[in-house]
Amino acid sequence: MRQILAYALCLTMVWYSTALAAPVRIKDLVEFDGVRGNDLVGYGLVVGLNGTGDGIRNAPFTEEIMSNLLERLGVNVTGEQFRPKNVAAVFVTATLPAFSRAGSQIDITVSAIGDAKSLLGGTLVMTPLTAADGEIYAVAQGTIIAGGAEASGDGASVVEGVPTAGVIPAGARVEREIAFDFSTLTTIRMALRSPDFTTAGRIEQAVNENFGRAVAVMLDAGTVQLDIAATRMPSPAHAIGRLENIPVEPQRKARVVVDQRSGTIVMGDDVRISRVAVSQGGLTLRIQEDPIVVQPNPFSEGETVVVPRTTATLEEETGNGLAEIPGGTSLSEVIAGLNALGVSPRDMIDILKSIKAAGALHAEFVVR
Fold it and tell me: What does residue 247 show for φ and ψ, rounded to 5 degrees?
């Protein structure tokens, strides 16, 4: 096994050579302070469903919102008993992008909260969307595009996807703007999406070289501050528009991510393994039933008897001992070697766990 693994490693070293990370624009590495979206939520009513709406007895809130809506439209339904099957109560969610202006449109997501079977073909009635401060910032309305399908008969039914949730592209219109004067900022902080001291230092250096003066300073691993006045740009918007396209080569942590459910392994080529020996095997249990039928002699008194006979064997896989992995080997080379030996993804995950527990895997190990 040692020879096969070493041979596989020699073959894969050509294909898994370590390469430098490609430059990335600053706008793809950071979030700018103050430039962010705001979450909106609303409670509304979907009408026009083909008998797939809420059961009023199981969802009394649907009847309540429908009564309130009809009364606002001048229809008096006080004391009336109605059981429509073409309406459903829904939650409407959306994100108000930064710098959205009154009159602009945003996408919304509609999700049933009652026992409605499907929102296909439904129309969302005018629904106000509020933010965390309780103020209304947008109003939603439109025809729902659901991503699933549902069909049923007398004896069976089938559901494909999730028909109880859908989207309305440009389904909400902004009615109120977020009070934020971006032009008055004197400094802007850039928050790294993946905090790293090396990457933050490279961003500081790249920005200062681009402007030809010290305009940026690294505050910590996740923050770089830009002095707007030092950039000598007409406005903060001009300064951001110039620096966000500056290329920077990010530094990433060595990380291995495994998904036990699907057997997926994702890693960077900077992951290294110290000198370690690996032995992998398993037990195979086989149980076989071979019953014997015993019959009495002819013309004699007796009964036919079935005598059970069970054969149980326990086998242990044997190999050539430990497979030694030389120090400094990259994990991609080890994975390729294990693949050449026919190791299954799940066994490979167990091997990586053991190598990490032994202290030989020098990377952050994430299990999902």
Answer: -80, 140
CA angle 301, 302, 306 (to 5 degrees): 165
pLDDT tens digit string along 72-97? Answer: 777 766 656 666 778 888 999 999 99
Please state, in angstroms and as integers, the Cα–Cα distance from residue 83 to each residue in 60, 67, 223, 229, following that order. Answer: 11, 12, 57, 65
10 Å Cβ neighbour count for 203? 24
> CA torsion 321→322→324→330, rounded to 10°?
120
Alpha-carbon distances of 96 from 29, 103, 104, 133, 354, rounded to whole Å:
22, 12, 10, 14, 46
* pTM exceeds 0.90: no
CA angle 121-127-133, nearest 5°?
Answer: 140
Nearest to 255 by CA among 368, 367, 365: 365
Neighbours of 82 (CB within 10 A): 11
User: What is the C-alpha to C-alpha distance for residues 366 and 206, in angstroms, rounded to an integer?
Assistant: 32
Residue 366: is it exposed, middle or buried by C-beta count within 10 angstroms (0-12/13-18/19+)? exposed
Supply 361's token pair. 């895997």
d(CA 201, CA 216): 10
